[in-house]
Amino acid sequence: MQKIEIHSIDGVEILEQLNAHLKGKLTDQWGEHVLEFDNEFGKGVVRSIVFDWGVSLVDYDVSFVQDTKIVFSIKKANPIEFIFISEGKLDYTNNTEERPYTFERYQNIIISTQKFSKETYIFPKTAAVKVNFIYVLPGEYAKKKNNNLSYLSKSLFAAFTEENEKSPYKHYGNYNLKIADQIKQLQESYESGIVRTLSIEGQLNLILAMQMLEHNNYENDLALPESLSKEDIKKIHNLSGFIIDNISEPLSVQSLATKAGMSPKKLQLGFRVLYSKSVNEYIRQLKLEISRDYIKNTDDSISEIVYNIGFKSRSYFSKIFSERYGILPTEYRKKIKAKD
């Protein structure tokens, strides 16, 4: 495992200290600083930009060759970190955590550690990770006119004041695809000059607002259609097992939603978060994977296999099997037998 130590939350300094290890290329334009690397350490882009009132962005789109531990040891600042992963996952720990915590894809994370703490983020090897860090320096942000900090929940408001100097703050929240969609727009911003800078700042403020809103809804136990709780995720995991056990039965979105005890809309959202597919796409892929195993490991006829996985039409099955694997089911069986 490679270890990279960072001693700043200044975006430029973070990139410089990363680059001391990653040996990439640093560039800057319109106040935005970019580190690009493609070598024996991995491949990726890290960019940063700093705005007024103590707000800055560091955005990672990376894949490391080996597990990579990035350790932040910051003495001069105690920022609030708004973190959102749009691809992959990260393991996280700090001085006060008894055990590591895994930050999941699409999960809303807000943390603020004690001063002089060490924070460790572990990027898993060979895995693509896209993660946004929005840093907010509370003392600077409090100077902003019309900051409206008093409208925050009590716990988050405390993180924006000196009250949190002795007590770390953490919010490991729900899963939210609306935030993911907004971050995607931020990452796909192709403007230039002042238009680009204003666009990034505007989108950054919107993402901050959405993360704060999710936090407020979480604390007030408000279930919104675009958010998923950990309990929702658990239900969908359990439902996946039910689908496998009943793959030959008719499985509609409505019947599965009823089984899981959630709305069809939330069920679809959950499958997008967990599997990046709609419910029907997930079921179809599962049927094809099971059918391939049947063809390979049993003597059942193609017609029997079609029946066993719940398809009514053999011709339709052959069509989608060929689209998926580039070979007809009958030809696939011949190929397997030829190898034997």
Task: Report the order of strands and helices.
Answer: EHEEEEEEEEEEEHHEHHEHHHHHHH
Tell me the number of helical segments per DSSP (H or I, 4 or more residues long): 12
Unreliable segments (pLDDT under 50, ≥5 consecutive)?
Answer: none
Query: Structurally, how many domains make up the residues?
Result: 2
Helix content: 40-55%
Structural class: alpha+beta
DSSP, total strands: 14
What is the name of the CATH topology of the largest domain?
Jelly Rolls
Strand content: 25-35%
Average of the residue pLDDT scores: 87
Shape: globular
The assigned CATH architecture of the largest domain is Sandwich
Main pleated-sheet profile: 9 strands, antiparallel
Widest beta sheet: strand line-up: 2-3-4-5-12-7-10-13-14
Q: How widely separated are the two ends?
A: 41 Å
